[in-house]
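Give me structure tokens for this 322-residue protein.
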Amino acid sequence: MVKRASIITVLVLSLISSCYGQVTVGYYNNKCGTKDVESIIRGVVQARFSYEAAIVAFLLRLQFHDCLGDKQCDASLLLEGLGSEQTAVPNFTVKGYDLIDAIKAALEQECPGVVSCSDIIAAATRDAVVLAGGSYYDVPMGRKDGLVGLASNVDLPPPDISVASAIQYYGKVGFSALETVVLLGGHTVGVTHCSVIKDRLYNYKGTQSADPDLDAFYVFFLGNIICHNDPNAVDMFVFLDSPDSVLTVDNSYYKMLLAHKGILPIDNAIAFDPSTSGYVNDLANNNDYFLDLFGKTIVKMGLIGVLTGNQGEIRQVCSRTN
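Here you go.
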């Protein structure tokens, strides 16, 4: 199954890439004088990662929300203002804007008006993933930035989405069931809040008890250490991966799922639904397989609805149009 699925993913990725001839690996070669665009991006990311490793989570989420929120990887999420995508409820807790701004400023200093904000998102996310233990992957570039970003266009899946609905949601933008499971692997560095999972801990489906699918000891740990059953308690962060791997890109997330420690309802569901459980098992048992597919799937996500050529623009400042 692993070999067949991997071949299918590579074939699909090749087809997607061929649809955007103007988005290519090495797009910025010799376009910034003697400077290397990707090296500049990597340098800023490395500097930030050295004291804030959580940027890998920030950037993965930022790219996910930018690409899937309105089905266009066009940096529309970076636009500020009344009614912008940033004002949509699912985007309230997105972080990393300041890092993208810092990278943009560094690039504008070397070669003004050359590198798009949407390409910065894609390359910076890749660099953070690598720094956090993920495999290196080439990023096709040449995207242009969008001119509009509206909260009303944002459509992102909720944490309690069903497996069937998740497969349908991601399928609409070309992802298979396997790739859906791989994308959810981004939760390897993800977090949520106690408020999101309190019902699973204390009142699952109105039963006044915990979700029986959750490991009993894990329920005890979460309830007594992190998410107290008190309306006045601080809404604490809850990591979606193992405590010893929360900022590492690896397959431990899938191992957590198989141990009945999936925090979000969708996490738990993909581990035991017949349509996805086999993929979870394969990924949990082979870290190299996960890392390879994760890179390929992120690249594919980064090609959703890209603008190229005369479409869009290259913003001078990422938070506003020119």
